[in-house]
Design a protein that fits this description.
The chain is 87% helix and 0% strand. By secondary structure, it is mainly α. The chain is rod-shaped.
Protein backbone atom coordinates (compact mmCIF):
# COMPACT_ATOMS: atom_id res chain seq x y z
CA UNK A 1 0.00 0.00 0.00
CA UNK A 2 2.86 2.38 0.77
CA UNK A 3 4.33 1.81 -2.68
CA UNK A 4 1.01 2.61 -4.37
CA UNK A 5 0.55 5.71 -2.24
CA UNK A 6 4.11 6.82 -2.96
CA UNK A 7 3.65 6.24 -6.70
CA UNK A 8 0.54 8.42 -6.64
CA UNK A 9 2.03 11.22 -4.50
CA UNK A 10 5.40 11.62 -6.26
CA UNK A 11 3.93 12.80 -9.58
CA UNK A 12 1.62 15.21 -7.74
CA UNK A 13 4.56 16.53 -5.74
CA UNK A 14 6.51 17.00 -8.98
CA UNK A 15 3.61 18.95 -10.49
CA UNK A 16 3.32 21.23 -7.43
CA UNK A 17 7.08 21.86 -7.29
CA UNK A 18 7.12 22.54 -11.04
CA UNK A 19 4.20 24.95 -10.73
CA UNK A 20 5.90 26.90 -7.92
CA UNK A 21 9.18 27.06 -9.83
CA UNK A 22 7.41 28.25 -12.97
CA UNK A 23 5.42 30.84 -10.99
CA UNK A 24 8.54 32.14 -9.24
CA UNK A 25 10.52 32.44 -12.50
CA UNK A 26 7.71 34.16 -14.39
CA UNK A 27 7.10 36.57 -11.49
CA UNK A 28 10.78 37.52 -11.44
CA UNK A 29 10.70 38.04 -15.21
CA UNK A 30 7.58 40.21 -14.94
CA UNK A 31 9.14 42.33 -12.17
CA UNK A 32 12.25 42.92 -14.30
CA UNK A 33 10.12 43.79 -17.32
CA UNK A 34 8.08 46.31 -15.29
CA UNK A 35 11.25 47.84 -13.86
CA UNK A 36 12.78 48.30 -17.31
CA UNK A 37 9.52 49.68 -18.73
CA UNK A 38 9.36 52.26 -15.93
CA UNK A 39 13.00 53.24 -16.49
CA UNK A 40 12.41 53.58 -20.25
CA UNK A 41 9.31 55.72 -19.68
CA UNK A 42 11.18 57.95 -17.22
CA UNK A 43 14.05 58.43 -19.66
CA UNK A 44 11.63 59.21 -22.50
CA UNK A 45 9.89 61.86 -20.36
CA UNK A 46 13.29 63.32 -19.46
CA UNK A 47 14.38 63.50 -23.10
CA UNK A 48 11.11 65.14 -24.14
CA UNK A 49 11.38 67.72 -21.40
CA UNK A 50 15.01 68.54 -22.16
CA UNK A 51 14.07 68.93 -25.82
CA UNK A 52 11.31 71.37 -24.86
CA UNK A 53 13.70 73.35 -22.63
CA UNK A 54 16.48 73.48 -25.22
CA UNK A 55 14.03 74.70 -27.85
CA UNK A 56 12.77 77.41 -25.50
CA UNK A 57 16.37 78.35 -24.62
CA UNK A 58 17.23 78.79 -28.30
CA UNK A 59 14.16 80.99 -28.85
CA UNK A 60 15.14 83.18 -25.88
CA UNK A 61 18.73 83.52 -27.13
CA UNK A 62 17.65 84.58 -30.61
CA UNK A 63 14.53 86.66 -30.02
CA UNK A 64 14.25 90.32 -29.18
CA UNK A 65 13.66 90.78 -25.42
CA UNK A 66 10.27 92.41 -26.05
CA UNK A 67 9.12 89.43 -28.13
CA UNK A 68 10.38 87.05 -25.43
CA UNK A 69 8.48 89.04 -22.78
CA UNK A 70 5.30 89.08 -24.88
CA UNK A 71 5.45 85.29 -25.31
CA UNK A 72 6.60 84.55 -21.77
CA UNK A 73 3.18 83.94 -20.20
CA UNK A 74 2.23 81.41 -22.87
CA UNK A 75 5.62 79.70 -22.73
CA UNK A 76 5.47 79.66 -18.94
CA UNK A 77 2.13 77.84 -19.07
CA UNK A 78 3.55 75.26 -21.47
CA UNK A 79 6.63 74.93 -19.27
CA UNK A 80 4.55 74.28 -16.14
CA UNK A 81 2.55 71.65 -18.01
CA UNK A 82 5.67 69.87 -19.26
CA UNK A 83 7.31 70.09 -15.83
CA UNK A 84 4.25 68.51 -14.20
CA UNK A 85 4.77 65.40 -16.33
CA UNK A 86 8.21 64.73 -14.87
CA UNK A 87 7.91 66.31 -11.40
CA UNK A 88 7.45 62.96 -9.59
CA UNK A 89 10.71 61.71 -11.12
CA UNK A 90 12.97 64.50 -9.81
CA UNK A 91 12.00 65.73 -6.35
CA UNK A 92 12.49 68.93 -4.39
CA UNK A 93 15.43 70.54 -6.24
CA UNK A 94 13.55 70.26 -9.51
CA UNK A 95 10.41 71.69 -7.89
CA UNK A 96 12.38 74.70 -6.60
CA UNK A 97 13.99 75.34 -10.00
CA UNK A 98 10.58 75.16 -11.71
CA UNK A 99 9.09 77.56 -9.17
CA UNK A 100 12.02 79.99 -9.58
CA UNK A 101 11.63 80.09 -13.36
CA UNK A 102 7.86 80.27 -13.40
CA UNK A 103 7.79 83.06 -10.81
CA UNK A 104 9.46 85.47 -13.24
CA UNK A 105 7.27 88.23 -14.61
CA UNK A 106 7.19 89.54 -18.15
CA UNK A 107 8.98 92.69 -16.98
CA UNK A 108 11.79 90.57 -15.45
CA UNK A 109 12.36 88.95 -18.81
CA UNK A 110 12.23 92.17 -20.83
CA UNK A 111 14.68 94.15 -18.67
CA UNK A 112 17.53 95.80 -20.59
CA UNK A 113 20.42 97.89 -19.21
CA UNK A 114 19.99 101.68 -19.43
CA UNK A 115 22.50 101.92 -22.27
CA UNK A 116 20.73 98.96 -23.99
CA UNK A 117 23.95 96.98 -24.31
CA UNK A 118 23.07 94.23 -21.82
CA UNK A 119 19.99 92.06 -22.01
CA UNK A 120 19.57 91.60 -18.25
CA UNK A 121 16.18 89.91 -18.51
CA UNK A 122 17.36 87.51 -21.19
CA UNK A 123 20.33 86.44 -19.06
CA UNK A 124 18.07 86.08 -16.01
CA UNK A 125 15.71 83.80 -17.95
CA UNK A 126 18.54 81.76 -19.51
CA UNK A 127 20.08 81.25 -16.07
CA UNK A 128 16.76 79.93 -14.73
CA UNK A 129 16.27 77.66 -17.76
CA UNK A 130 19.79 76.26 -17.30
CA UNK A 131 19.10 75.63 -13.60
CA UNK A 132 16.04 73.55 -14.49
CA UNK A 133 18.01 71.55 -17.07
CA UNK A 134 20.82 70.92 -14.57
CA UNK A 135 18.33 69.32 -12.18
CA UNK A 136 17.75 66.56 -14.72
CA UNK A 137 21.38 65.44 -14.93
Amino acid sequence: MNETFLCAILPLLGVVVGWFASYWLSSARDRRARKYALEDAREARRRDFISFMEKWRTEVERNDPRKTANEFSAKNSLFRGEAAKIRPDYGVNFEVAVRNLSSLRDSDVEEVSPDRTEMIGRERLLTKIDAVIRCLN
